[in-house]
Amino acid sequence: MQVVITGGTGGIGFAIAGHFAALGHKVVIADLHQGAIDDKVAQLQQQGFDAAGIVLDVTDAASVANCAALYPADVLVNNAGIQHVARLEDFPPEKWQQLINVMLTGPAMLSRAMLPGMRARNFGRIVNIGSIHALVASPFKSAYVAAKHGLLGFSKVVALENADINFTINTVCPAYVKTPLVEQQIAAQAKEHNLTEQQVIEQIMLAPMPQKAFIGVDEIAATTGFLCSDAARHITAQTLVLDGGWTAR
Predict the structure, then answer these.
(1) How far is CA 1 from CA 26, 53, 98, 149, 188, in A?
(2) Which UniProt keywords apply (predicted)?
(3) Span 12-31, average pLDDT
(4) Are 177 and 214 a contacting pair, CB within 8 Å?
(5) Which residues have CB under 8 Å from 210's CB, separation 6+?
(6) Is the pTM of this model over 0.85?
(7) Using one digit for the tens of pLDDT, what is the confidence trace for 233-244?
(8) Domain 2-176+216-243 belongs to what topology?
């Protein structure tokens, strides 16, 4: 299978790429910066894996079309994400729109571009990397929470529209993962709440989580791999939550 992963140079994206590559699939790392793409592709190729890369801006229609034309996906992993933390009244409107474009409109348009090929081959798997914030909310994250909530509804609609072929679409929703994006959030929330970074981790990020632990990128990668396996062929339109018990409260 050919597996296209957006945000593929980041912590979660590259873990997913490595997981699929180790399973024997061709992986395509799609991201914004050529240098980072080349570095990650080289790492995989040095291990003997089949890997390629492409510069992709999920908010740009021409870039999306080019990716779909060059690398039609059997498996599409919509993972690209950004964050901005601020009260709504202090949230720059252009930044709010950017988050929606990257994490909701982008996955929709890339899925739209990949779907004709999937339908022609009678096979497709789309996995959206959501977040615990697709299910719950936190202050100062209105755009991120709105985008991730929207992703769940989007996935359900696409699952219904393509239930006539061998196709599934699901969303993996982890609690906090220790990635560079989350490291930035820790610093931003420390400033917003007037706390130390350690206090943010203990009192805000891990406080609602009974297991009190960050989710590992390996867990997300393996869950994504499972959703694309034959054993999961009838799991579609679902939300798989890796939250250490957070949403049980």
Answers:
(1) 6, 15, 31, 29, 39
(2) Oxidoreductase
(3) 98
(4) yes
(5) 244, 245, 246, 248, 249
(6) yes
(7) 999 999 999 999
(8) Rossmann fold (3.40.50)
Locus of tokens 């209105």: 142
Give yes or no for a contact between 154 and 197, defined as CB atoms under 8 angstroms apart.
Answer: no
Q: Measured between alpha carbons, how far is 64 from 18 in angstroms, rounded to an integer? A: 23
Residue 31's alpha-carbon distances to 55, 81, 164, in angstroms, are: 5, 11, 31
What positions carry a catalytic annotation?
144
Give per-residue pLDDT as tens, 179-227: 877 788 788 889 888 999 989 888 888 889 999 889 999 999 999 999 9
One DSSP character per residue, 178-211 reads -SHHHHHHHHHHHHHHT--HHHHIIIIISTT-TT
The answer to whether 55 and 71 have CB atoms below 8 angstroms apart is no
The two tokens of residue 59 are 């908010």
HEC sequence for 114-177: HHHHHHHHCCEEEEEECCHHHCCCCCCCHHHHHHHHHHHHHHHHHHHHCCCCCEEEEEEEECCE
Residue 76, beta-bridge partner list: 4, 126
| 60: region left, alpha or beta (phi > 0 left; psi from -120 to 50 alpha) | beta
152 Ramachandran zone, left/alpha/beta (phi>0; psi -120 to 50): alpha
